[in-house]
Amino acid sequence: MVIVLFGKPGAGKGTQAPRLAAALDVPILATGEALRAALRAGTPMGLAAKAFMDRGDLVADDVILGIIKEVLSQPAYVNGAVLDGVVRTVPQAAGLEKVLSDLGRSLGAVLVFDIPDEEIIERISGRLTCDKCSAPFTGRVPGIACDALPCSSGTGGGVLVRRKDDEPDAVKTRLDAYRKSTEPVLAWYIGNGTRVATINAVGPVDEITERARLALGL
Ligand code: AMP
User: Fold this and answer.
1) Annotated catalytic residue 127
2) Does residue 163 sit within a domain?
């Protein structure tokens, strides 16, 4: 099953993605993480995306569609995927449909994380992220070692940092980009008959996982 996790930055998609991926026994495709990994590796794609990401602007659709196509074509993704932070524009949604249909697959559902802006701003202002595995944390201090998998398993060894695009100006830009370019994607999905399920994304992490599982019938 391929599912799209949809919602504002900081809505909890990155926290729920591993839990839902485990429940479905499929891997995650997170374009933000793919771009950060490309930047860490110093690839031309990563370096070109850096300024957009730091500001909180969206990266060009053709770059994102290139990642989607490359990743979803890998054998590990043959049984499906949890898409975190993809798709964010109508051209990306249309492009994803094409990639999936070329691969003989289809989108199972779009799971919308519903959350007010005030909660987003409060959450992001307290959020730290591992500089290696990108796991999100709250209630920690910068500079301490990451204890999420895979870092805790000894291969990562990441440290908690504040993402540049979690600074207040960039968060405002990201929320503006969500409203302008991403929100219209929902109407596009509803219009073409895709299964869209919405959950309340405010509350304890375990409870939100339960709501998501219930909404997806897992
Ligand atoms: P995320 O980790 O999902 O919050 O993404 C971090 C940043 O990567 C975003 O603010 C964008 O600059 C870029 N990005 C990630 N995914 C996409 C996407 N599907 N479309 C455009 N830009 C993206």
Assistant:
1) yes
2) no
Give residue-wise pLDDT tens across range 158-203. 999 998 889 989 999 999 999 999 999 999 999 999 999 999 999 9
50 belongs to the catalytic site: no
- Residue 173 within any structural domain of the chain: no
5, 39, 53: which to mutate for ligand 1, most atoms within 8 A of CB? 53
Tokens linked to 181: 């370019």
**Residue 163 appears among annotated catalytic residues:** yes
Output the domain CATH number for residue 89.
3.40.50.300
Distance 67 CA to ligand 1 centre (A): 12
User: How far does the centroid of ligand 1 lie from the alpha carbon of residue 58, in Å?
Assistant: 6
DSSP string, 185-211: HHHHHHHTT--EEEEE--S-HHHHHHH
Instruction: Specify if 141 maps to a domain.
Output: no
Per the domain annotation, does 99 fall within a domain? yes
Structure tokens at 211: 């709501």
* Cα distance between residue 187 and residue 197, in whole Å: 13
Tens-digit pLDDT profile for residues 100-130: 999 999 999 999 999 999 999 888 888 999 9
